[in-house]
Give the backbone structure.
Amino acid sequence: MLSLNNIEVIYNDVILVLKGMSLEVPQGKIVALLGSNGAGKSTTLKAVSGLLKPEDGEVTDGSITFEGEDIHHLDAADIVRRGIFQVMEGRRVFEHLDVEQNLLAGSYTRSDRGQIKADIEAVYTYFPRLKERRRQESGYLSGGEQQMLAIGRAMMAKPKLIMLDEPSLGLAPLLVRDIFDIITRINKEQGTTILLVEQNARLALDAADYAYIMENGRIVLAGDPQQLKDNADVREFYLGLNEVGTRKSYRDVKHYKRRKRWLS
Ligand SMILES: Nc1ncnc2c1ncn2[C@@H]1O[C@H](COP(=O)(O)OP(=O)(O)OP(=O)(O)O)[C@@H](O)[C@H]1O
Ligand SMILES: [Mg+2]
């Protein structure tokens, strides 16, 4: 459905951040994109959604296709119209609008206005808490409620593909589980394809059908999430698991070597 082929992204005309990034998101699947801070995950999503421009970023090489068509010259609103919606890092809601106005804002590119009321109710079935607070100014919602609202607003665009940038960021563990359950339900029940950027590797690998790991602007590892969970590097760097009995100093050396191998 979505395909990135060898893309390069440069910020401010000089800083090369994506250095030949490729990935595939098949229709109907949940694909996870993992990687350490600064690897280029958010940049990858912005390259797809057309949101690099306001940050002085530019795709300088490679191609991005969605449903077989090149989209990387389209502007952000056109990309939303094609069916791609990005939920930005840090739950960006319109703080001075109430919950329902935020949801309405998500539907701005749609032409089937008659269906919108019913869709708001559908969002409330996933997030009952938002219904209780429908008239509340969004800036006063809790962090978790704002994340729900950001996802609900994405649903209102009726996208074919939702890209989520770190939906668990700053949320309590129980709430993180709830959010992941809902993401999985949206995928199964609405048939929405999901590209998920996430620091919580364990949850992301549990939810995903396929996963990519990126370092330093390109993919270094990809595969079936269950197999990745057994990979020694993934266990150590992303799941925080070490083989029992390994001496720390030795492990650190191994760690360093492996990391070098990844980055080379
Ligand atoms: N607008 C910008 N101008 C210049 N450099 C930028 C800009 N945005 C991001 N970068 C740089 O690009 C690199 C990748 O950033 P990006 O935000 O894509 O990483 P990330 O994988 O999402 O990291 P994190 O896990 O911390 O969110 C970083 O080195 C960052 O400093
Ligand atoms: Mg990021």
